[in-house]
Amino acid sequence: MSFGAFRALNDVSLDVGHGEIRAIIGPNGAGKTTFVNIVSGIFKPTSGRVTLEGRDITTLSPQRRARLGLARTFQITSLFKGMTVSEHLQLAVRDADADGETRRELLEQMGLATFADREVDTLSHGDQRILEMAMAMVLKPKFLLLDEPTAGMSIAETDRMIRLIIERLRGRIGVIIIEHDMNVVTQTSDKVTVLAAGAVAASGLPQDVLRDPHVKEIYLGSAANH
């Protein structure tokens, strides 16, 4: 992916399987956000392809990709002030096949049932992030993109998110998670891909990648305080 003379991504290629959680890590400016924007359809790549279950979706809109089973959350919370938790789920499924019972079950599973009739701006930051995940999951996606799902969370909220990712997503749907918190990465991911300067610097099992001296040099050293 190029923006004028600047190449944000250079020959980045990876394959995420059903039920696999793949963490994408790297220092600021590594290309992580550009990558997830290409996968979700916000950006069209300068060259290369995006495929979903063997189908080329490179030119499809984000909405079309969502209907095919590719859902996403965003780094910055984007809920509607004044609307309740239940109303947000109704909004998320207006074009999908999910009845009221399905929505109630999801709220129970995500620990949000007691907040169903509360306006979202009265929720904690952690509960707002979990609601966003619920809105993506109510579409019953095959693959889910999580863009820094624990950003701004307390330790307790982060631990809750980790449990939800493990219990609700692992082994069920494919997940790409962009994350700075190494505790989240090591506890949730099956594989880790490291981006640096727009290219893949390393990829493999979390314990192997995070012990790689090259990875420590390019990423962990600059993120020691995360």
TrEMBL record:
InterPro entries assigned: AAA+_ATPase, ABC_AA/LPS_Transport, ABC_transporter-like_ATP-bd, BCA_ABC_TP_C, P-loop_NTPase
GO cellular component, one term: plasma membrane
Keywords for this protein: ATP-binding, Nucleotide-binding, Transport
Pfam families: ABC_tran (PF00005), BCA_ABC_TP_C (PF12399)
Gene Ontology molecular function: ATP binding; ATP hydrolysis activity
Residue stretches making up the ABC transporter domain: 1-222
PANTHER family recorded: CONSERVED COMPONENT OF ABC TRANSPORTER FOR NATURAL AMINO ACIDS-RELATED, HIGH-AFFINITY BRANCHED-CHAIN AMINO ACID TRANSPORT ATP-BINDING PROTEIN
Protein's name in the database: Amino acid/amide ABC transporter ATP-binding protein 1 (HAAT family)
